[in-house]
Amino acid sequence: MDENIPIKNITDLDDYQEEALKTALFPPEIGLLYCAMGVLGESAELATVVVEVLERGIIEDPEFGTDDLHWLISELKKSIETCSVIEVLKKYARKGHYDIKPMPCLTDDERDRIRSEGGDLIWYAAVMARVAGWGLSDVAQENVKKLRNRRNAGVIASAGESIEERKANK
Question: In this structure, what DSSP letter does residue 22 have?
Answer without folding.
Answer: T
